[in-house]
Amino acid sequence: MSKTIKKSAKTVQEAVALALAELRVSKDDVTVNVIEEGSKGIFGIGAKDAVVEVTSNVTPEARAIDFLTDVFACMGMKIEIDITREDKMMMVNLSGDNMGIIIGKHGDTLDALEHLVSLAVNRGDGEYVKVILDTENYREKRRATLVRLAENLASSISEQKKKITLEPMSSNERRIIHSTLQSNPNVDTYSIGEEPYRKIVIALKKKQ
Predict the structure, then answer these.
(1) Which ranges of the chain would DSSP assign to H, the alpha helix?
(2) What does the pLDDT look like over 134-177, one tens digit per residue?
């Protein structure tokens, strides 16, 4: 996730400072290449600005670890952070005691923390990296639960001929419901409401 920018100023130090401010990193986190030292000229005549190229060396993994370490320190929790990277996707797995606190109701806290980690990682100074935050295999367990729920509700609606409106869900969870039932011949699904209270409706498929 490195990014290189070029800056010019009266001195090398000033040019580097401009680059650091734009990259929002410290000098320890960059590599500096001085292209032009710059010169004052004689009585200001023939003066040349210094020109530098500054490359950020901060990785998405380092940003995620720094952010989460600070969060868990504030919470007084000892959490192990394991990160794996596949191209533009970063999987962050957390382990420790009382992970239910991190998960929250239906994964609400985990989703919120995932969003914050994504903001910490993606600061606009490199390619976007998708962050997936998980603990105790919660994501897969929740997906399986939603698939079973969708299938059971579809069967119930087919029998009772009544539509059902589910409780508000995140966009990821709504996507699982939609995907599970998209090939069902008896029901349709659609979403209503505004975020963060958007809900899925499962209804009988209208006859053509």
Answers:
(1) 12-23, 60-75, 100-103, 108-121, 138-160, 171-181
(2) 999 999 999 999 999 999 999 999 888 889 999 999 888 999 99
Residue 9, classified by CB atoms within 10 Å of its CB into exposed (0-12), middle (13-18) or buried (19+), is middle
Q: CA of 144: how far to CAs of 137, 164, 173, 201, in Å?
A: 11, 20, 11, 19
Long-range Cβ pairs for the range 8-14 (8 Å, 24+): 8/36, 8/49, 8/50, 8/51, 8/52, 9/38, 9/49, 9/50, 10/38, 10/49, 10/50, 11/38, 11/50, 12/37, 12/38, 12/50, 12/52, 14/50
pTM: 0.73
pLDDT tens digits, residue range 40-69?
A: 766 666 678 889 998 888 888 999 999 999
User: Cα dist. 97→79, 102, 134, 193, 201 in Å?
Assistant: 8, 10, 14, 36, 37
Q: What is the mean pLDDT of residues 125-129?
A: 81
Alpha-carbon gap, residue 48 to 39, rounded angstroms: 5
| Per-residue confidence (pLDDT) for residue 41, from 0 to 100 | 64
Integer CA distances (angstroms), 8 to 11, 30, 92, 190, in order: 8, 17, 38, 54
